[in-house]
Amino acid sequence: MRFRIVELLSEKPMHIAEISKALGMERRLASYHLTVLEDSGFLTSKYEISNEKKSKGRALRIYMVTDKVAGCFRSLRCFKHGHP
Predict the structure, then answer these.
(1) pTM reported for the whole predicted model
(2) Which residues contact 66 (CB under 8 A, 6 or more apart)?
(3) Which tens digits make up the pLDDT trace of 22-67?
(4) Euclidean distance between CA atoms 1 and 51, whole angstroms
(5) Based on the structure, what is the number of domains in the chain?
(6) Which domain holds residue 6?
(7) CATH no. for residue 28?
């Protein structure tokens, strides 16, 4: 599940409601995985004021991947293709 979250966030930063909806999981479970990933250095987050019609003016916590993810993805591609 955490890999799927990282894949999703590598496409674009998102807030928890978008993440849980996109992956079909409860917010509470998504929150748990996001905390673990952030504590491990794979994600970072920041608060932004929403411009979306539904939540306009509210502060939303936006999650995004760190450079650690890019390094891991490079390593996985090299491993998959047999490159050192």
Answers:
(1) 0.80
(2) 41, 42, 43, 44
(3) 999 999 999 999 999 999 999 999 999 988 777 778 889 999 999 8
(4) 29
(5) 1
(6) 2-81
(7) 1.10.10.10
